[in-house]
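hey
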């Protein structure tokens, strides 16, 4: 009997290891087609990146949630879509960053809670089926290096299983080495800030094991989508809030979308 119990325990452990391997398989998150943009819209408000927006997106079935990251004037990482617009916070936006204390003390629309990166990481711990796409608000590879140095500090003590569920978005080819130097593998390559063709994107992605590309709807041509799909590279279009428009993109091979308000079960049940 003891031998049987030991055997069953070993089988259980091995099964658990296989399950974890599948969960963390490279780019397994792309099975989900809908991404909550800027933590998702809430009560008609978007771009808040707030705690309530995140929880609302989770409760609505999103498994992919994008969170914007910006640096405060005193060098802290917070969940914010840059500093050019107030997005419901009570300050005169002029591209000048707030201090960390100022930002955290200004609820969006007087009711939604601002988040820093540590809060985002805690939410990831609390919701183990969710992946977070990190959208660093950068304008150069140098900015990326500064931002990810802070990200690296924040994740030093974080369990590797959680880090696997952080998906950096990259805008410049030079970003890749910076991002991967902090232990990340999967990325979403946002195309458009550098010169490109379908062939050049595919070649870069194949060479660097990148299997997901983000495109603005303006750039989402059938030819480009076809070239990417041919090489097993999935495309996500941003930001679409009309189901009919989404279906028109599905017809040319687009894989998924960033959205503020479309619920995942409205789309994923049929594709």
């Amino acid at each position: 009997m003891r031998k049987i119990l030991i055997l069953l325990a070993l089988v259980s452990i091995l099964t658990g290891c296989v399950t974890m391997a599948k969960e963390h398989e490279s780019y397994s998150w792309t099975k989900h087609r809908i991404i909550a943009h800027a933590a998702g819209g809430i009560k008609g408000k978007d771009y808040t990146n707030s705690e309530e927006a995140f929880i609302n997106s989770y409760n609505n079935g999103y498994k992919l949630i994008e969170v914007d990251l910006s640096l405060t004037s005193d060098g802290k990482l917070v969940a914010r879509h840059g500093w050019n617009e107030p997005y419901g916070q009570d300050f005169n936006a002029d591209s000048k960053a707030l201090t960390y204390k100022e930002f955290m003390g200004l609820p969006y629309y007087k009711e939604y809670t601002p988040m820093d990166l540590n809060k985002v990481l805690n939410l990831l711990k609390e919701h183990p089926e969710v992946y977070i796409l990190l959208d660093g608000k950068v304008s150069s590879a140098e900015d990326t290096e500064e931002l990810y140095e802070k990200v690296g500090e924040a994740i030093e003590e974080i369990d590797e299983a959680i880090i696997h569920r952080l998906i950096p978005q990259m805008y410049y080819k030079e970003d890749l080495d910076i991002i991967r130097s902090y232990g990340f593998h999967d990325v979403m390559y946002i195309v458009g800030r550098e010169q490109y063709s379908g062939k050049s994107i595919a070649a870069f992605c194949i060479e660097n094991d990148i299997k997901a590309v983000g495109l603005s709807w303006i750039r989402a041509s059938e030819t480009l989508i076809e070239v990417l799909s041919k090489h097993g590279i999935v495309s996500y279009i941003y930001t679409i809030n009309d189901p009919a428009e989404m279906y028109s993109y599905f017809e040319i091979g687009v894989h998924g979308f960033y959205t503020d308000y479309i619920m995942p079960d409205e789309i994923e049940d049929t594709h």
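The CA atoms of residues 84 and 143 lie 17 Å apart. The beta strands are 34-36, 64-71, 77-78, 131-136, 166-170, 188-190, 212-216, 234-238, 256-259.
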